[in-house]
Design a protein that fits this description.
The radius of gyration is 23 Å and the shape is elongated. By secondary structure, the protein is an alpha/beta fold. It folds into 2 domains: 2-170, Rossmann fold; 191-322, Jelly Rolls (Sandwich), CATH 2.60.120.200. Strands 2-3-1-4-5 form a 5-stranded parallel sheet, with helices on one face. Strands 6, 8, 10, 13 and 15 form a 5-stranded antiparallel sheet that branches. Strands 7-9-14-11-12 form a 5-stranded antiparallel sheet. Helices cover 25% and strands 33% of the residues. It has helices spanning 11-26, 60-67, 80-89, 94-105, 132-139, 145-154, 169-186, and strands at residues 2-6, 31-34, 50-55, 72-77, 117-121, 194-197, 202-203, 215-216, 222-230, 235-245, 253-262, 266-276, 281-291, 297-304, 312-322. It starts with a strand and ends with a strand.
């Protein structure tokens, strides 16, 4: 029997896997902990016992199996701050940690109304959406309540609720602006605005590096900014960005684009806003965008359409507002 555990790395994921492994052992079954790799076949050859399949990224293939009723899943949605803190402690920088959360959390929302998927979430105040008995029942196992209480007592205590001291104030604000909508969507809530600040983007002139506040325009036509490859909940959004220009940018044509990349689908352009600079100052670019799937990694691109010998510009953030 296979049970899929899907969710971002964090303390709640580890606790859930340990708890279900202990329960399965109590049933007298052989327990196998499996981390499927991309492209692994499923179902695997019949084996005795229980397999707990652990996925931090819920791939479209496994999501399809759950949706088709061929696989039961537990969607583990921990507190955003707890997951982010653990990823930072593991050595990921801020952008890498946000990318991991976006990739692992957003697709969970696609299964939030699926009969064979049980959300198991921990709210900001530490409140859980269910308990061990509910998880066991979803797996189809029959275990006396007193036995479950004994397992819970033997396990390490449930990780404590988050504290405001876990993150610096600016990191907490960044996490909410970029990931708040993804966690809300995964837990069944509505859409809310998303902000991608400049610190999440990458510099086209120095690949892989964070961009400066002021971007030099001098040089050939090129991509000035790109990234961050975050996911958005599917639906219709309005993309907005405000650019600031120096006087030397007059007559320059710029475009802000959003491209989506998904396994087996390649890269497609979802939105484009074009602007020709008239004078020094600011301009706001807007464009509607429809995100078809939470599995699309989204890349924004600020593009200069022709070469320039001088000029500077700045982009502070890209905002997505649900329509």
């Amino acid at each position: 029997m296979d049970i899929l555990l899907a969710g971002p790395p964090g303390p709640l994921f580890q606790w859930t896997r340990d708890a279900l492994s202990a329960v399965a052992g109590l049933l007298g079954e052989t327990v196998e902990l499996v981390w499927p790799l991309p492209g692994d076949p499923w179902p695997a050859p019949e084996t005795a016992g229980i397999r707990l399949l652990s996925l931090h990224y819920l791939s479209p293939d496994f999501a399809g199996l759950v949706r088709a009723g061929r696989l039961r899943a537990i969607l583990i949605i921990d507190q955003a701050r707890a997951c982010f803190h653990d990823l930072r402690q593991a050595g990921q920088d801020i952008r890498e940690a946000l990318l991991t959360l976006s990739t692992c959390v957003t697709p969970l929302g696609d299964l939030r109304d699926c009969h064979d998927a049980l959300p198991f979430a921990r709210a900001a105040d530490g409140t859980l959406s269910g308990d061990l008995a509910e998880l066991v029942a979803h797996c189809g196992w029959s275990v006396p309540r007193e036995a479950l209480d004994g397992i819970a007592a033997a396990l390490a205590a449930m990780p404590p609720a988050e504290t405001t001291e876990m993150l610096a104030a600016d990191e907490a604000a960044l996490l909410e602006a970029t990931m708040g909508a993804s966690f809300t969507y995964a837990m069944g809530g509505g859409l809310s605005p998303v902000v991608w600040p400049r610190r999440c983007l990458l510099w086209g002139d120095r690949l892989g590096e964070a961009p400066p506040a002021i971007l030099p325009l001098a040089g050939p036509a090129r991509i000035l900014l790109y990234g961050p490859y975050f996911r958005l909940p599917p639906g219709r959004w309005q993309m907005t960005a405000t650019l600031a220009f120096s006087a030397a940018c007059r007559g320059m044509a710029l475009a802000l684009e959003v491209h989506g990349t998904r396994e087996s689908h390649g890269t497609r352009r979802f939105a484009r806003a074009r602007f020709v600079v008239g004078q020094a100052g600011e301009a706001t670019l807007t464009a509607p965008i429809r995100v078809p799937s939470a599995h699309d990694a989204l890349e924004s691109r600020l593009v200069s359409e022709r070469g320039a010998i001088e000029g500077d510009l700045a982009l502070d953030r890209v905002t997505f507002t649900p329509l």
